[in-house]
Design a protein that fits this description.
single chain; alpha/beta; seven-stranded mixed beta sheet; 11% strand
Length: 299
């Protein structure tokens, strides 16, 4: 398959935004079996959520066992918006600003949105030192990269706080926390870059199909493909071509078992967080990986 990951989202009761993703090679027999068992045309977590439905599925031991095994392949990206809001609030207080005089809720949410984007892979930019290294090698192509501007990116994605949440979560879901850390190191230490084959494999894995939710994020996420390519050492002109191939797109969930699996996993994860008072480690022990605001949670 050309597309390596498929994702869909949900929300917790306290406003955390959850994206679940499945790789193209995931075993999705459980999606087909569960859909048939529930006698529905499209699998959505809401169809499983009622307690009587859960009991009915759990009574079918083989089906339920395969369901849990299938969910273990999910990769979960979570944006904990409240953590950003409080960080901005206390940063302002520490600087002597007074609530309702020097700043209001809108100020907090705008700054929190920009902080989310700054923490995301969208902020990947070569440092000055890395740029000089490349120039010493006879190439100044990195000078063509624009500076990271979270406010402008937020404006392009729709301008609202929610737009920044969805965009940053989608960007994080394209790279695991460990992959993002590796890229940050490559930007600062170019000798850590791997071979061309390894770099191209990393770029291929950025391909994602999301459920139809936020089309304005797609051009920005496709630009991220080019940014990752350039951070990996791919020449600028080639990196730009990679960003124009629309490796990130949206697709209706009714035509994709992968996206239906992601919808189910996102709803399941959100419900588990609701019932455990946000216990990320309990969730991390059940899936491939969990990242919260770009930080990996140990299982």
């Amino acid at each position: 398959m050309d597309w390596i990951g498929y994702g869909d989202s949900s929300h917790t009761a306290d406003g955390k935004y959850v994206i679940a993703s499945f790789r193209a090679d995931a075993n999705l027999a459980w999606v087909v079996d569960l859909r048939s068992f529930l006698n529905i045309a499209e699998l959505k977590y809401r169809d499983y959520a009622p307690l009587e439905q859960k009991y009915w599925v759990q009574a079918n031991a083989p089906l339920y066992r395969n369901l849990i095994r299938g969910l273990s392949e999910a990769e979960l990206t979570i944006i904990d918006q409240e953590k950003y809001d409080w960080k901005v609030y206390f940063d302002l207080i520490d600087k002597g600003a007074k609530p309702n005089e020097d700043f209001d809720l809108r100020t907090v949410r705008e700054r929190a949105a920009d902080m989310m984007l700054r923490d995301s892979p969208l902020s990947l930019r070569p440092t000055e030192g890395f740029s000089m290294d490349r120039m010493r090698e006879g190439s100044a192509v990195l000078e063509e990269l624009t500076d990271f501007d979270p406010t402008d990116i937020r404006r392009r994605s729709g301008g609202k706080h929610r737009d920044a949440v969805v965009l940053s979560a989608r960007a994080h879901s394209m790279l695991s926390p460990s992959e993002f850390m590796e890229l940050r190191l490559m930007v600062e230490q170019p000798y850590l870059r791997g071979s061309i084959a390894e770099n191209m494999e990393r770029i291929a894995k950025l391909g994602h199909v999301f459920d139809v939710e936020h089309p304005k994020s797609l051009p920005i996420l496709n630009e991220l493909v080019g940014q990752v390519a350039e951070a990996s050492g791919i020449p600028h002109h080639a990196a730009r071509l990679l960003s124009l191939r629309n490796r990130v797109r949206e697709e209706p969930s009714n035509v994709s078992d992968h996206i239906q699996a992601a919808d189910f996993a996102a709803g399941w994860a959100a419900e588990l967080l609701n019932s455990t008072d946000g216990d990320y480690r309990a969730l991390a022990g059940k899936v491939r990986w969990v990242g919260v605001n770009g930080v990996a949670i140990p299982g």
